[in-house]
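Forum: Protein Structure Q&A
Topic: Joint prediction for protein chains with partners

I've read a bunch of threads here and the consensus seems to be that you should model interacting components together rather than docking separate models afterwards. I'd like to see that in practice. Below is the full input, 1588 residues plus whatever partners are listed. Could one of the regulars post the assembled result?
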Amino acid sequence: MSIATTPSTVRHEPAAPAPVPHHGSFLSTYVFSKDHKVIGLQFLFSTLVWFLIGGLLALAVRWQIAWPWSDVPVLGKLFAQEGGQMAPEFYTMLFTMHATVMIFLVIIPILAGAFGNFLIPLMIGADDMAFPTLNMLSYWFMWPAFIAFGASFFVEGGAASSGWTSYPTLSTNVASSPGSGWGQTLWLLGLTFVGVSSMLGSVNYMTTIILMRAPGMTMFRLPMTIWAMFITAVLQAFALPVLTAAGFMQLADRTLGTGFFSPEGNIVNNWMQSTGGGQPLLWQHLFWFYSHPAVYIMILPAMGMVSDILTTFARKPLFGYRPMVYSIAGIAGLGFIVWGHHMFMSGMNPALGITFMVSTMMIALPSAVKTFNWLGTVWGGRIQFTTAMLFALSFVSMFIIGGLSGIFMAATPVDIFIHDTYFIVAHFHYVLFAGTAMGVFAGIYYWFPKMFGRTMNEFWGKVHFFLTFIFMNGTFFTMHILGAVGFPRRLADAYHYETFHHLQPLNAFMTWCAIGMVATQAIFAANFFWSMFFGPLAGRNPWRSNTLEWTAPSPPGHGNFDFQPIVHRGPYEYSVPGVEQDHLMQTDPPNAAAAALAAAH
Amino acid sequence: MPHASMMRSAMHRHPVTIIAILGLCLLATGCGQTPPAYFRPNMVEATKQRLTPDQEKQVATVLLAMFGTPDEPVCMPETGLDEAKLRLAAGPVRSDIVGRKNGLYREHCAHCHGVTGDALGPTAAFLNPYPRDYRPGVFKFKSTERADKPTHTDLVRLLHNGVPGTSMPSFALLPSAQVEALAEYVKYLSIRGETELTLMRAFFELDDEAQGKLPETREFLVDETLTPIAEKWKAAADAQIQVPPMPADIDLVASIAKGKELFYGDKANCVKCHGVTGLGDGQANDYDDWNKAIVEIGKEISSGSAKARETSTSGMSPDELSEHRAQLAWIEKFGRVLDGDALEPRTIPPRNLRHGIYRGGRRPLDLYYRIHAGINGAPMPAAKGTVPPEEIWHIVNYIRSLPYELDGELGADKPMLAKDRF
Amino acid sequence: MRTCSRNSLLGVVGLGIVAAAGCKAERVATPSADAQAAGKLRVTLVSASTGGGAVAAASTGSGWGTLKGRFAFVGDPGTAKPLLADKDTEVCSKAGMKLLDRSLLVDPSSKGLANVVVFARKTTRVKEPLPENPTGASLVFDQKQCEFLSPVFAARVGQPIDVKNSDPIGHNTNVSGSDFNQLIPAGGSTTYVPKAETGMPTMVTCNVHPWMKAYMVFRKDGYVAVTAADGSFTIPDLPAGEPLEFQVWHERSTGPNGALGLDNADLKWTPKGRFQITLEPDQVKDIGTLEVPASAIGT
Amino acid sequence: MNRLSGIFWSLLFLAVPVLGVATFAIAPAIDVWLPKDVSEHGPAIDGLFYFILALTGVVFIATEVLLFWFLWKYDAANGDRPATYIHGSHTLEVVWTIIPAATLLFLAIYQMNTWADVKMRRPAMAPSVEVVARQFEWRLRYPGRDGTLGTPDDLFLVNDLHVPVDEDFLVQLKSMDVLHSFFLPNLRIKQDAVPGMKIRVWFKATETGQFDIVCAELCGWGHYKMKGRVTVESREDFDQWLESQYARQNATQPEADPSTAVARTE
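Posted by a regular:
Agreed with the consensus. Here's the joint model:
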């Protein structure tokens, strides 16, 4: 098509999906492709596979918590010698790798890698990323990580088993735990590669967003998704080096015999440690200096996507666009000075605890602001309950819970009791699963047409949402009251404590819910792959949305746009009074619409 | 909704796919058959004794008849074991039943000591020192003479205090009924293991007319094999070492000084292994019996294979050749058996006497037992006979003073001559 | 052992699954008990009845005979390796004297193989009065310059053995599989009374000086001999007129439990290192020189 | 049809606050709630917990119900009025920034005192006991008669901590190998034990009884079984117990009656 084509016609004629033109071999087009969309999808598929693996790991964990030492289905064969019961070190390995996989191989890459890659150029009107080769590398650097983490399950002693935080001296000392052998080394290697990948990505995103916006696309006309991706990239760029450095220090402690993190005269498993003079808390500081910002890396993009989806299906402008942007920036800024709230009980100077408590209380603020603005966005809209919308709404609803429960932990005296109990487990699962994962599902249902040119089945989408929503809350909400009892996390069997032995039925209930939750994802998988090939054709703009990606063909060919998009307004001009359609795309020329707009203001 | 129509049209074709995939998932997670727990035969000994599969099978069968399975233990009256206690300790864990009445051993012990009591639990390989293998029936920390079995009280006390300086935890918080049951079950596993060893070794003693089959008679299996082993356990209770009381009017300082003399002297000769510093840095490259056995076998195998390599098969008569082949096969099998059924041998360093950690207990009485009778299974020799009781008491007092020779902090590790400290 | 270092390598390469399979397959298969047979057997065992198997009384002869023989090593015994004696060198390797491995002692002139143990497996009667000691050597088990003076030591069960230490340093004497592991102060001594038969000879060590090694064999009837430097042995006063079975052992034999298997048809020599013989009363039976091929001796 | 689905979904979202509140209402009834508190500082902590619970509860209910109400009311299928065209409200933004900010700040300042009491204002006294955590047990060392640690009359025990009631009790916390966490649920105490650090923990128990010691920081494969027991008892019982343990530790003769060899647990 030519530039002369009016997008309004573009909008209504359901265009057949334009085939991806072949530049070079299959290999260079689909495997080692430099096209941001292909890379995005590569990220999407890899992370979804790991999502499944992580989920199954979680099930095994839940099994042990609910029925410790009783025969494990399927896995039982591994423990024939023990009569089918799970060995405790195997359990520690399970929850360690569950967290590791979910955080480093699913959430971070699926948000930044999959959606970031796919959406950024499309939503800012660029034909590709600034550095396509870097982009490709950022994906292929994930593979050494995939291999390292995957292989670590099969080495002597099994995979890493000192928690995803891998605190020294448990993690630095080979003798301290079976998983602290080969498994931990591979874990550190994997982590490094994930870091490299994210770093390459973030550099690319920042450059692209700053330099390659379409004409007329000012920073404050960017959709929230892009803002979120931008801030996330900044966070990664500043936080990651610290983790990578710390990782190398730990690697050195383990392999070169340095003593950054181990004090003098430590006797682990009755082996006298030769090195010493270090300080275990140093790792915790370095680790959380990355990993707290990382918490926001794991939620901000979802927030952005949810904002876009809410506006689309509420047919209403985003409530308080700039406050939303500022609050994201605020979160990012404060995110760097709150890491200490993970260490209230760690032996860090209690006086520091007070300062970190204050900053932590303050970071709850921007989150609150965002929540209120989402409510404001829904208020007075014309809400369409599509699957994407439902997931987006559940994100808001669940994020409220996750946010509020955070306040308990932020209050240092209360944290004395609930630190490292199931209360914290509930908290971060509400933020990361009930929050981010819901956002991700919303994003997949919402952008699926743009990715594959076909829409996912709505009916089964809603079934998927309903069951997930029920089971999810059944699993995670219960954790709050478990935490109130002080039920500690990471215990292979807590029922020999008088304080906790009556909690077994509750845990059994949660495990059944968890099983249901994982099983439900089969519906999603089926729907996803079925719709990829047999789903109804989508057309360019099935949701009648405003942002730039919807002006491109579905799926967009190489180079994305078949005309040069020129941006005339912000991304959220829905239900503009006096305009016949209930939305004005960013590319719509400022003719009659502009008049109407002026009248409205 | 622009796509409502598509939606409806799609709905009909779906359920098949989805149900299929759901089914697959259930298949993947739901049904998995877990084999019941079983007693693993002592493959190291079986291979050492060159048992044939039939012979291994016979031993397994006899043991099954005499001792039952990990889930349903039985015991011959001759063992003098209390089956009720055994049932409390044995069996799978049913943690979903509050106040359940079985599975204690597999809940608390099997991870390290193994369901069979062979110290090959999944966690064993990562512990230092390795957990105890009950099968040879050798126990270290007890109130009886070197070769005697521990008394029931000894086992209970050990469970109660744990073994400081090892991975053996204290079970003081378990109800005593459960501790009793566990102690009884340890005896059961030990008697079973020792019986197994005896049976496997018995094949070599067989006359040729027995055609490599043990007589399955009460005389042989019970009277000749089981009863002697069980008797040793029964005898333990009355075999406690009689400890002459420490002289009441003992002058501690003088006693400690005397103890030091003995520690460094040629008579008690402690210094040879525990070192001039008392840090356990003397003769330290020896093995305990369990590891030594594996080391010896390792040597045997390597020498055997070396031998086999250098002998040329050329000019061998057919049966010589088959013999040669058999030898090679045996060596190869032994290699695999050690891989799976034995732990990497580790030396046993003498105790560092300055940590103030005493595995067998810190009571003066415990130290007296150790010095008097030595430590069974370990290099520590007995001083009885060559060192009179009152001198043993002196040594005890000196040992107890060692951790405090520095500025009162435990675990001092600066290699300084103990002589210069006092 | 019990490690999968191979697998860890593979793991790094990423062939985890394969590795896992290998790791799990590593433990050798074990025989499964025959449940039915076990059930039947249990009935036999719990029933107080003497479940058959009464041993037929062995035919007994009369009079006494003597067995003589000699073991000769065929082939090149090589030169004895020096032992690693790194403790108490001022005593143990005095004047640079090296302790040598004595596990294979062959007399250069006669090729006689020393320290082979021959004992009667089962005997029905013993000639009274019992000889003072079966081996002819004195019942002193001494250690000097960090070496047990008798590499292979035989005694009758119940005979008091004088365990001596003629060194200016302390030793301990550890008879494996027995209740005896005793400190022997410098120049001191203690008494050990063996309580049970050993079956095959058992190892004796000194834990202070790990290289010190000897063997002890105890028999109830005392019908046991250790070959001398020239490889010859004599067992006097054996019950005559009835079949006797002898067990032969050598420290370095490749046979099971050190049994010395020879290819000797007329003595019906078995792989378990046993041969049978029946003595006439007052006969001194000399079974001549038995040739021990190098292949029967491990490295 | 569509309106029905709108109703259905909005009700689903209403279920969140309803069931959420219900859960927290039922929990105490079925004894899935804060364990019995027997410490002097505990009430302050519990008080804060309830205060925050109330505060967040109100916000939770308000926001979730609002969400439900908007979903119910502004369902596209519910009447045919256009969506409100509004880009936000400056006043609102200010309001819902200031109010939470004030609340949170108040919260932060309000609880500093409790924090200082539990973690910063250490009673001036010598350690009542040294707890050395190691994989996987709590090794205890009482100073013994002379009241100072590291002397030959120290009393060594495992996992079985005894504490006199109504007295300040100062624990000197160490770790021998890896991180552990000294968690006394009923005494509202939690403190990581860090290798190479000597950390003081103090509390005053107000009731006699036996309570759990839990390890709350992953310390390896046996983390789950790193269980201890704290026995709060009167001063007399405490001293008597100390004496008996001391006698047992220094025994030079076996017990006359073997059944008294170890402290019995029923």
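The radius of gyration of chain A is 25 Å.
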